[in-house]
Amino acid sequence: MERKEVKENKKERVKGKKKKKKRKKKKKKKKEEEKKKKKKKKKKKGKDKGKEEEEKKEKERSKGEEEEKSKGKEEEEEEEEEEEEEEEEEEEEGGGEEEEEEEEEEERKRKDKEEEEKKEKERSKGEEEEKIYLLDNVVKPIFISFQLAKLATINQHVCLVL
């Protein structure tokens, strides 16, 4: 009889513990849901404030852009006048300078192309060296170990070689 009573008491204690765990889980879930709700509310408030701030920034930008445009137009006009004056002076001096500039630009382009070709060759050499290294130091040893494993199994021995 005592054993039965002990077993029943134990079952009741276990049930009580399980119920307690369930209650704790429910409380945690409620707290987490409340936190999520609070975060959502904060985000909404933050979004509203963010929208207002963005609108203010856009207004300031548009004002600044308009001012820059008006200043930019004046500056462009001045630059155009200066360029025209410079062109007139160059025409008076002659066209020899323009030809020299063109030749210099062509030389620069040729040099750039040669440098790019050299770099590509160096890269390809480096890639080939890497492939050779991988073949010698990685692939071949693995292949050899597999061959040895086959030989071992042929002789009806269980062997792991790696």
From TrEMBL:
This is Uncharacterized protein. Residues 1-11, 49-74, 107-131 have a biased composition (Basic and acidic residues). Residues 12-48 have a biased composition (Basic residues). It comes from Octopus vulgaris (Common octopus). Residues 1-131 are annotated as: Disordered. It comes from the Eukaryota. Residues 75-106 have a biased composition (Acidic residues).
